[in-house]
Amino acid sequence: MTLSSPKMLLLRDRVLRLGRQEVWLLVAVLLVAGGLLAFGLLVEEVLEGDTSAFDRAILLSLRNPADLSDPLGPGWVEEMARDITSLGSHVILVLISLTVIGYLVMVRKRGAALLVFASIGGGMLLSTVLKNVFERTRPDLVPHAVQVYTASFPSGHAMLSAVTYLTLGALLMRVHPNRRVKAYLLSVAIIITVLVGGSRVYLGVHWPTDVLAGWCVWATWAMLCWLAAVWLQRRGKVEQDIQDPEDAA
Questions:
Q1: Which of the chain's ends, N or C, has fewer CB atoms near its CB within 10 Å?
Q2: Could you give phi then psi for residue 151, rounded to 5 degrees?
């Protein structure tokens, strides 16, 4: 059997594919470790009060020095920030998630539906637990532009918007073969996530480090969910990604 025979070429492609998968698994494990380390360091700095100057400087830079109840910019910017921040509220995220899960069940993609439910539901539970553990008070440096009812650290809006929109973005990426479309979907999910996190600081209801912590927790949780998805795919419980025709060729 020659090296250029169809069987040898197929075997080579399988080996290369397995090699790439192992590399990505290693990267994911390293990202999980990095996310945990970053969150741990941030928690230490926050508890020791070393981030106080940074948090205060960012919050004050977004307010009118003559009137701290007035965020920078015209009134429509503040109203727009309220609209954007609502995209990270529990009500909106639950409605979007249930809609997507219902669709996946209807098209008989129960494995993907369970994965979405576990990713987003688990993220919400984790956010609640962390808030109750740290019980950091909300910023009192500037008046709040929206009502808040829970603790401050980490930011639930920042974390849960990342978990939800990036999970759904990744789900859509899996069913579309074109890499440009995949990049577009990922970019939209990232932009929404960043806007929601930024709006929480702009509206004065979170310290900047709350938002950074929320993103650190999200990154760790997302990688853990991705590893679970790969494991389920290998067991045939979740559909495999659709490849780009150029990659398949």
A1: C
A2: -70, 175
What are 134's two structure tokens? Answer: 């740290």
Question: What's the structural domain count of the chain?
Answer: 1
Q: What is the pLDDT of residues 46-71, one digit of tens each?
A: 888 888 899 999 999 988 888 888 88
Catalytic residue among 90, 144, 157, 176: 157
Handedness of CA 58, 59, 64, 70 (dihedral sign): positive
Q: Looking at 90, 144, 176, 206, which residue is catalytic?
A: 206
List alpha helices for 107-207, DSSP H.
Answer: 110-134, 156-174, 179-202
Per the annotation, the verdict on 90 as an active-site residue is no
Domain containing 212 equals 6-248
Cβ(93)–Cβ(156) under 8 Å? no
Phi then psi for residue 67, to 5 deg, are: -150, 100
Asked whether residue 58 is assigned to any structural domain, the reply reads: yes
What are the pLDDT digits (tens) for 87-97?
A: 998 899 999 99
Rounded to two decimals, the pTM is 0.78
